[in-house]
Amino acid sequence: MALDQRRRSMEAESEPTSADTDAQARRKDEEEDLRVSSLLSNRRQMVTMGIVFVLAVAAIYFVFPMAVGLEDALARLGDATWYWVLIAIAFNIAAFAAYVALFRGILGGRHDDELHRRLGVKASYEITMAGLAATRLFSAGGAGGIVLTYWALRKAGMPRRRSACRMVAFLALTYSVYLGALVVFGVLLRTGVLPGADPVGGTIVPAAVAGGAIALLGLVALIPGDFERRLGAVTGESRVARIAEKLATAPATLATGVRTALDYVGHPRRGALAIAGAVGFWAGNIGVLWASFEAFGGDVPFAVLVQGFFLGMAANLIPSPAGGVGSVDAGMIAAFVLFGVDKEIVFPAVLTYRVIAFWLPIPPGIVAYFQLRRTVAGWEEERRYTSESKVTMEAS
After folding, report:
1. Whole-angstrom Cα distance, residue 3 to residue 315?
2. What sign does the dihedral 224-227-229-234 (CA atoms) show?
3. Under 8 Å between Cβ of 217 and 172
4. Which domain holds residue 176?
5. Residue 183 backbone phi and psi in degrees, to 5
6. Helix axes 160-190, 302-313, angle to 10 degrees
7. Greatest CA separation found in the chain?
8. For residue 18, is it within any domain?
9. Minimal CA–CA distance to 291: which of 245, 208, 386, 355?
10. pLDDT digits (tens, 9 = 90+) for 256-307
């Protein structure tokens, strides 16, 4: 109860000083509807993305291995041990189940409100899977998935600012596990506590960068939730002051979201679902990669497997036409080669991992998008019925 009250107060702190007018709110909702609807309705964009994907697959899976003399490694893709591939798929299912739990734990509303009922397991699955598909198909730093998730939360009835704060908390908790793992396994490998190769570029350097990012998140959390109001009190009522106050909304929302994530960590019993979901998501992905290496007879030390995975995933920051296609594949291959893993095994193992973890969820994600559209339509119909009933009761 105390945790819920604290989160409510933090989110209330970050609410703007004046509420949007009904006309403004309707206009913003219409704009969000238009953005999300356009994700899968623009035929030209779909065709363009299809061409990009074909070219990316051809470049990464065929041209690249021939250019670096890995034709034999490419031919080994057909030699994968079938049951390890099935185990990898099982780990992938577990990873997405954990992702749904993470969503439900942070964004699923409180147990005493209507949001919790609407954002049940089914809706949480639809939103997370559709968001992942949008991220992969319409990637701009993950913007496709962020836009779709925010739209779904708003349609479920979550207030605008609270939606933004909770999404920041969701991302902060997810990537805190990522950053923390880079620090822990980088240090333990370099100091010899855990067995495995320990190149400086794969251990201490990424650990230092990740540690700096964690420190930066901690500093962001110190920004007060009412930063806009404080800034307004200092700058006065001029036009420039009003612009500055609006710009201050972003860091205030970011800070509130980070503090909300820290609140979950600080109260692990109440935040257990979210914490288990964040850890489980990454653990499931590493399980997919482990099974992919085993499918080709690779025996990679556990710490190297974890560090190589997270180091390779950092390539997501490199601009890519869609969801890290190409950049993550190459980054992960380079990471394991840096750790001295045989490239004849690395190449087919990483490509198998990417097929299972990246490509395989896209079709069910697209199906989930259309299921989500029907779910949202049901919420809107429910609200319309409730509103009409209320008007009828007041009239009588």
Report:
1. 36
2. positive
3. yes
4. 2-10+24-395
5. -70, -50
6. 140
7. 81
8. no
9. 355
10. 888 888 888 887 777 888 999 999 999 999 999 999 999 998 889 999 999 9
Does 224 fall in a domain? yes
- The DSSP call for residue 194 is S
The whole-angstrom separation of Cα 337 and Cα 197 is 11
Kindly compute the dihedral angle of the four CA atoms of residues 282, 285, 287, 290, in this order, to the nearest 10 degrees.
Answer: -120
In a domain, 72, yes or no: yes
Residue showing tokens 């380079």: 334
Residue 19 lies in a domain: no
Contacts of 35 (CB under 8 A, 6+ apart): 147, 151
Rounded to two decimals, the pTM is 0.82
DSSP helix/strand/coil, 73: helix
Identify which of 277, 251, 298, 270 has the alpha carbon closest to the alpha carbon of residue 94: 277
CA distance 264 to 2: 12
Residue 368 contacts residue 126 (beta carbons within 8 Å): yes
pLDDT digits (tens, 9 = 90+) for 116-144: 888 888 999 999 999 888 877 765 445 67
Can you tell me the distance from the alpha carbon of 322 to that of 359, in angstroms, rounded to the nearest whole number? Answer: 12
The total of structural domains in the chain comes to 1
Give the total residue count for the chain.
396
**What is the rounded distance in angstroms from the CA atom of residue 274 to the CA atom of residue 173?**
8
Which residue, 157, 169, 378, 339, is CA-closest to 256? 169
Q: Which helix (H) or strand (E) holds 202?
A: none
Question: Among residues 288, 294, 286, which one has the least CA distance to residue 82?
Answer: 294
For residue range 196-238, what is the model confidence (pLDDT) as tens digits? 999 999 999 999 999 999 999 888 888 876 555 555 555 555 5
Q: Which amino acid is at 202?
A: G
**Range list of H helices, the chain:** 2-13, 22-41, 43-58, 64-67, 71-75, 82-107, 114-118, 121-137, 143-156, 160-190, 204-220, 227-235, 239-247, 249-266, 272-295, 302-313, 327-338, 343-354, 362-395
